[in-house]
Specification:
The protein is α/β, with parallel strands linked by helices and about 450 residues long. The chain has helices at about 75-80, 85-90, 100-110, 115-135, 140-145, 155-160, 165-180, 195-205, 215-225, 265-275, 300-310, 320-330, 400-405, 410, 425-430, 440; strands spanning about 40, 50-55, 60-65, 65, 185-190, 210-215, 230-235, 250-255, 280-285, 315-320, 350-355, 375-380, 380-385, 390-395, 415-420, 445. It has 16 helices and 16 strands. The strands form 4 sheets. A 7-stranded mixed β-sheet has the order 7-6-5-8-9-11-10, sandwiched between helices. Strand 3 and strand 4 form a beta hairpin. Helix 1 (about 75-80) packs antiparallel against helix 2 (about 85-90) and helix 10 (about 265-275) packs parallel to helix 11. The relative contact order is 0.10.
C-alpha cells in the first residue's frame, strides 16, 4: 500500500511543486479516499520534477515530473524523504536486465553463490538504468529498455519507433476528428510512450491532454523524448482511475484493451470519468474469431465493450481495415451509417466510437495528417543510401515478428524512394521540397519529436 501520511506537521514543505509538470489540480484524486491530490510536504529539498502529492490519507511520489498513483510506493517515498532522487528513479523503474544463462544455472546448482550473483545483478541493473536515464535519443533509450531487458524484445522496440506510421495508429487517426471536436480535456488511457498523446496535444494544447500508463519506463520515454510539455500519470488501468467523475470531455484507449486482463473495469472507469455526452474511442480491439499472428491476451467481441460502455451510449463499430483505407484516401468515416453489427470473422481488429445518446452526430471532418511542424523529419523506417547516381531512401530490415503483425505497412510505404539532388537543401532544412507533397502523403517525411532518433544525413 502507498505510505500513509502521518503527522504532516513534522515534515518540511519543499520549496515548490515539481517543475516541468502541468498540475491537473481539478482532475487528479486519490483512488482510496477520493479527495483531490495536491503538492505535499517532503523532509528534504528535491530537484525539479521530484516531489510528492498528498491527500487526507496518504502520499504519492512524483518522479521525473510523473505522479505515480499506485500500490506499494513506499521505497520511492522513503528515497524522496532522504533527498535521494536517483534512488527514487531506480525504484520507480520495474526494469530487469536479461540475466545470462550461466548465472541462472549457477543459482540452481550452487546456492551459496546466490548472494554474490544477486549483488552483481543489482549492480548491472543500476548500470543499465543509468544508461537508460542518460540516453541521447528515444531510440537509444528504447533499445536499452526493450532490447536488453526481460520486459521486451526488438519487435517491441520497433513498434514504438515506427508508431506514427503503423496501420493501427493511422486507423485510429481516422476517428480522431470526431473526438477532438469536443475540445479538452482529453485522457489517453494506456498511452504507452505518448505518441497519440502528443498528437492530441498538438491539436488541443498540451494543458488539455493527459496520458495514463502503468509502466513508468514508458512514461519516462514519453516525457523525456516524445512530449516533454505534456502531462502524464503513472497508474494501473485495471484499478480505479485517479480522476474525478466527468473530469474529461473525451477519452481514448488505442491499441491496449485486448491485452488487459481487466478490460471491463477500464471501460467502466472511462465511462465514469468522461462527460456523459463526450466521445470514448476504443481502438484496435482484437477479433477473437479471426486467425491472426497476434490475437492479444484478452480479445473480446464488440458486445462485450458495448455492454460495459452502458445503455446510455450509442456505440459504432468500424473494421480497422476500413478505417485505414479511409485515412489513406483522406476520406472521413460515416458516423451516421457506420457498421454497427458484429465484426466479420476475417477482420483482425476493429474500433468502437461511443457517443452519448444526446450527442449530435455531425459529418466527420476529413482526417488531418498533422499540425504542420517546425521541421519535417525522415521516417525512421528509411535509411539513406548513397549511390553514384544520387541518394536513395531504402526501407530498413525489420524483425519478422513485427512484419507478420503489420503486413499492411509494405503496401503504403514504398520500398525505395530516389532523392533528386535539388531536393537535398530543403530536406536538410526540415522542409518538404516544393511540388513533392507525396513525401508527406506516403509518410516518408513525418512529424517526429526533436530527440527521437539520430537524424539521417542527406
Amino acid at each position: 500500500m502507498p505510505e500513509a501520511r502521518t503527522n504532516p506537521s513534522s515534515r518540511r514543505q519543499s520549496s515548490s511543486a515539481p517543475a516541468n509538470w502541468v498540475y491537473p489540480e481539478t482532475r487528479l484524486r486519490c483512488p482510496a479516499c477520493r479527495h483531490s491530490l495536491k503538492p505535499g510536504p517532503t523532509e528534504q529539498e528535491l530537484p525539479g520534477g521530484y516531489g510528492v502529492l498528498a491527500c487526507s490519507c496518504r502520499r504519492h511520489p512524483v518522479v521525473e515530473a510523473i505522479p505515480i498513483v499506485k500500490e506499494d510506493t513506499r521505497p520511492l517515498l522513503q528515497a524522496l524523504d532522504r533527498g535521494d532522487w536517483q534512488e527514487a528513479f531506480f525504484a520507480a523503474c520495474d526494469f530487469r536486465p536479461c540475466m545470462p544463462v550461466v548465472s541462472r544455472a549457477l543459482k540452481r546448482a550452487f546456492p551459496p553463490s546466490r548472494p554474490l550473483l544477486a549483488a552483481w545483478e543489482r549492480s548491472r541493473r543500476r548500470k543499465e538504468l543509468s544508461a537508460f536515464r542518460d540516453a541521447a535519443t528515444f531510440f537509444e533509450a528504447s533499445q536499452i529498455f526493450f532490447g536488453r531487458s526481460a520486459r521486451g524484445n526488438w519487435a517491441t522496440a520497433f513498434y514504438f519507433l515506427l508508431r506514427q506510421c503503423d496501420p493501427t495508429y493511422l486507423a485510429a487517426r481516422s476517428l480522431l476528428p470526431a473526438v477532438l471536436e469536443t475540445g479538452g480535456p482529453l485522457l489517453d488511457a494506456c498511452c504507452g510512450t505518448g505518441h497519440f498523446t502528443r498528437l492530441a496535444g498538438n491539436f488541443l494544447g498540451p494543458g488539455n491532454v493527459i496520458g495514463l500508463e502503468r509502466s513508468f519506463e514508458r512514461l519516462f520515454l514519453a516525457k523525456r523524448f516524445v512530449f516533454p510539455e505534456g502531462s502524464f500519470v503513472c497508474a494501473d488501468a485495471g484499478d480505479p482511475l485517479p480522476f474525478q467523475e466527468n473530469a474529461f470531455q473525451s477519452t481514448i484507449c488505442v491499441d491496449a484493451l485486448s491485452d488487459l486482463d481487466r478490460a471491463d473495469d477500464l471501460v467502466k472507469e472511462l465511462t465514469r470519468i468522461t462527460h456523459r455526452q463526450g466521445p470514448i474511442l476504443l481502438s484496435h480491439l482484437h477479433n477473437p474469431h479471426a486467425v491472426q499472428p497476434y490475437q492479444g491476451r484478452n480479445p473480446q467481441e464488440p458486445d462485450f465493450y458495448r455492454r460495459h460502455l452502458g445503455s446510455g451510449r450509442r456505440s459504432i463499430v468500424f473494421p480497422d481495415s476500413r478505417l485505414l483505407a479511409l485515412f489513406l484516401e483522406g476520406v472521413p468515416p460515416d458516423l451516421e451509417s457506420g457498421p454497427r453489427e458484429q465484426i466479420e470473422t476475417a477482420e483482425w481488429s476493429y474500433s468502437i466510437l461511443s457517443l452519448g445518446q444526446e450527442a449530435r452526430t455531425r459529418p466527420a471532418a476529413a482526417p488531418v495528417r498533422s499540425v504542420s511542424p517546425s521541421r519535417w523529419r525522415l521516417n525512421p523506417y528509411y535509411l539513406v543510401v548513397r549511390r553514384s547516381a544520387g541518394l536513395l531512401l531504402k526501407r530498413r530490415k525489420l524483425p519478422e515478428r513485427y512484419l507478420q503483425e503489420y503486413p499492411q505497412m509494405e503496401t503504403y510505404l514504398p520500398a525505395t524512394v530516389p532523392i533528386a539532388s535539388e531536393w537535398v537543401p530543403a530536406l536538410r532544412r526540415g522542409e518538404c521540397p516544393p511540388g513533392q507533397e507525396f513525401l508527406l502523403e506516403r509518410f516518408i517525411l513525418i512529424d517526429l519529436p526533436e530527440r527521437f532518433v539520430q537524424p539521417e544525413r542527406f
